[in-house]
TrEMBL record, chain A:
Belongs to the complex I 75 kDa subunit family. Residues 3-79 form the 2Fe-2S ferredoxin-type domain. Transmembrane segments: none annotated. CDD domains: fer2. InterPro entries: 2Fe-2S_ferredoxin-like_sf, 2Fe-2S_ferredoxin-type, NAD-red_Hydgase_HoxS_gsu, NADH_UbQ_OxRdtase_75kDa_su_CS, NADH_UbQ_OxRdtase_ferredoxin, NADH_UbQ_OxRdtase_Gsu_4Fe4S-bd. Its cofactor is [2Fe-2S] cluster; [4Fe-4S] cluster. This is NADH-quinone oxidoreductase subunit G. Pfam families: Fer2_4, Fer4_Nqo3, NADH-G_4Fe-4S_3. PROSITE patterns: 2FE2S_FER_2, 4FE4S_HC3, COMPLEX1_75K_2. The lineage of its organism: Bacteria, Pseudomonadati, Pseudomonadota, Gammaproteobacteria, Candidatus Competibacteraceae. It comes from Candidatus Competibacter denitrificans Run_A_D11. One of its GO terms (biological process) is ATP synthesis coupled electron transport. Its main location: membrane. Composed of 13 different subunits. Subunits NuoCD, E, F, and G constitute the peripheral sector of the complex. GO terms for molecular function: 2 iron, 2 sulfur cluster binding; 4 iron, 4 sulfur cluster binding; metal ion binding; NADH dehydrogenase (ubiquinone) activity; oxidoreductase activity.
UniProtKB/TrEMBL annotation, chain B:
Residues 477-522 form the NADH-ubiquinone oxidoreductase 51kDa subunit iron-sulphur binding domain. The keyword 4Fe-4S applies. It comes from Candidatus Competibacter denitrificans Run_A_D11. It comes from the Bacteria. The lineage of its organism: Bacteria, Pseudomonadati, Pseudomonadota, Gammaproteobacteria, Candidatus Competibacteraceae. PROSITE patterns: COMPLEX1_51K_1 (PS00644), COMPLEX1_51K_2 (PS00645). Pfam families: 2Fe-2S_thioredx, Complex1_51K, NADH_4Fe-4S. Belongs to the complex I 51 kDa subunit family. The keyword Oxidoreductase applies. This is NADH-quinone oxidoreductase subunit F.
Amino acid sequence: MSEEPRFTLDGRTVPFQDGQTIMAAALAAGIYIPHLCFNPEFTPHGSCRVCLVKVNGRMQASCTTPAAAGQVVQSEIDEVREIRRGLLQMLFVEGNHVCPACEKSGACQLQAVAYYVGMLAPHYTHFYPRRPVDASHPDALIDFNRCILCELCVRASREVDGKNVFAVQGRGIKAHLVVNTPSGKLGATDFSLSDKAAQVCPTGTILSKHSGYEIPIGQRLYDRKPINVVGDVAALAVSKGGRRHD
Amino acid sequence: MAESSTLAQTIRDIVQRHQKLPTRLLQILREVQDRLTWLSTEAINVVAEELGISPAKVRSVAEFYSFLYTAPRGSYDILFSDNITDRMLGNRELLHYLADRLGVAINGTRADGRVSVGTTSCTGMCDQGPAALVNGYALTRLTKPRLDRIVELVNAKTPLEQWPREFFEVVSNIRRADILLGRHFADGAALRAVLKRGPEAILEEMVKSGLRGQGGAGFKSAAKWQSCRNAPGEVKYVVCNADEGEPGTFKDRVLMQDYADLVFEGMTVCGRVIGARQGFVYLRGEYRYMVDALKATLQRRREAGLLGAAILGDASFEFDIDIHLGAGAYVCGEESALIESLEGKHGVPRIRPPFPTTHGYLNKPTVVNNVETFASAAKIAVEGGNWFASRGTAESKGTKLLSLSGDCERPGIYEYPFGVTVRQVLEDCGARDAQGIQMAGPAGHMISAKLFDRRICFEDLATGGSFMVFDQRRDILDGIRNFAHFFVHESCGFCTPCRVGTSLMRDLVDKVHTGHGTRADLEEMRKLGQIMRVASHCGLGQTAPNPVLDSLDQFPESYERRLRSTAFEPAFDMNAALEQARWLTGRTDPDAYLDEEILSRAMP
Ligand SMILES: Cc1cc2nc3c(=O)[nH]c(=O)nc-3n(C[C@H](O)[C@H](O)[C@H](O)COP(=O)(O)O)c2cc1C
Ligand code: SF4
Ligand code: SF4
């Protein structure tokens, strides 16, 4: 039996297989590293930067950095937490996140990660972008105000559903999610609530139309336990307040 | 009906000429726009259909590049270069002057659709500004009389080919030449050397030379070539990075314009060493004026047996070069974004590893080097590694081309052995009164007079070549603000810290610049800068806060003299917010304004 290679993560020894990223190895070892654009079912994207860790003294995204034997990885240290908090604050001011009114509140990964990294207020000046809501689809609603450009829906629709319903267009701060039709309306696509793309959004951007606010405050997914204990909303079954299709 | 069928036919012809290859998408869109002045939804749909890709994909490319337009644009599209060096030369006044005379709003298009006027990032003409582009072609040394003439030409619908040639004249201003620019090079000499001595021997010379990437990062070129040579795969590529987007640098322009043979020869040597048969020059869109000349040079080389099949008569030596034109995106200078762009996509940097040497263009092993690196490599192949290494310092061998601009008497290109001091350079270019240098462009470092004895080399001050001088009359914060706006415009938008951080930083700099900043804002800039620096996905976001962070340390007084005495100033300006109400009600009396005193006391 050959010895499995290992690295340390906040002092704990983590075994890994060749080709695994730090994030994948940590996940397999049951260690939570906060993340938004990462979802173990998809190719890593590396855009939200929330899964940043310090690897041998250098900050790197754990979802895209290959694990290597002997690496010293630090995650839950003040320096890293402070940067993660800053990134979350940036995401909150970039869009329009009115949490108390949002249907996803309490079961929202963005919100849960924000709590996890200790974000109490958005801190930066709000951008207040104008982003119209798309309610053209019979079953689904897209509130672009809450989109954080993680491209999970883009990847899911392309790679799993084979529909290519979503895309990101524009450069820099003008980058925005679009629906891949001439009219730009979801109603003109063959998108369905049973699509993978309907189940992966870490925010309340893509929502089911015919139900809402069903779970009382206090019993919602992340009301009692934090995300590192509960897990990602996209990975959970309907009964736990995760997916709300079918 | 007739109109739309001609549109479709025009596009079909263009797509056909590019063999319906999706990798040619950016080139196709450029040509379509040249014909139609902008990319309408209809045009985008036809391109998508002809290439067999989704319209959203075409649009994502069209919306990414500054020089592609998805809204109507004038038949004459005039963009003023808006680098700080252009500003020093008075470009803002000229911009307003031209817009007024043409009767067009800045960033707008005239009602008759004839002309648009706007601004763009540095066009690489800092030594002969104020500069602009008209339909992508460089205009230099603008003056009011020149603009008067341009107004007449536009109003008379004179085709660009009939505009006075001198408006488009780009001079090279080589002020100091050393081993790269100074010594004669016989075309084909490096190719004969690699044929005679073999790829291993040339690689050995490259190792001895110690040559490091001249694009700025300074990676050992021999190691890069070796790694690509070793990478498995039959098909490999050579890419010359001529994107030169760093504001203040223009040395690659001069090399491509006056030393193209040397650069092409370096690429061909590289092709022979790594086993590639195809090379690309990724030329920034701002340099489209030289495309025809470069193509002619390539053709001449083919005819002389220096390029194409059977180079120097050796059937096993095959290598050709194609020119790809960018379309206004600084991030495409980053090697993996450049490769994406070469593949016809929008320029978002890839996740690295894997690196281009194993997974580059079309996922094949690829060497990406800067223009100057290839030029140096050609010389090394001929003259040997030791010859090159005899100049420079222990860790930085050979010479470096510096692009000098800003407040100096003799702006232009200066070639120095590595290790030259900043002071020496300032003396040579006639910068008598410098208070600071922006070294290596906005992504580099700001150097105050205290540091002028430092040396230009990888051990001390690394640079890709940009060297902008600010003299005592200048307000450093004007430069910082210009750079902060530049990064907002150029962020690709992929990752959070750069996409959002560049805008937050710009707002903070603007706030201080307009006299509304407080000490708390300076602290905020440092914190934000730190997040951008360590958390960004690529070098753009990682270096974007440099000008602010450096100047906070080196030029604290430029900030402090503008600060408000209060410890905190809200980002929301109540008085300004009431402006509209005052205007609507026509009130100008003192009671219509909030008392600043009361306001500041009411705030936490
Ligand atoms: C935002 C950004 C812009 C860049 N622009 C250029 C450029 O215009 N030209 C260049 O040669 N390298 C540029 N680089 C560096 C390239 O990524 C790469 O390191 C270089 O082309 C390698 O060539 P070299 O080793 O010969 O320097 C840029 C890097 C970043 C992060
Ligand atoms: S809609 Fe949701 S899943 Fe799609 S990019 Fe936006 S935040 Fe990500
Ligand atoms: S740092 Fe991020 S947003 Fe900025 S250019 Fe690089 S990838 Fe794009």
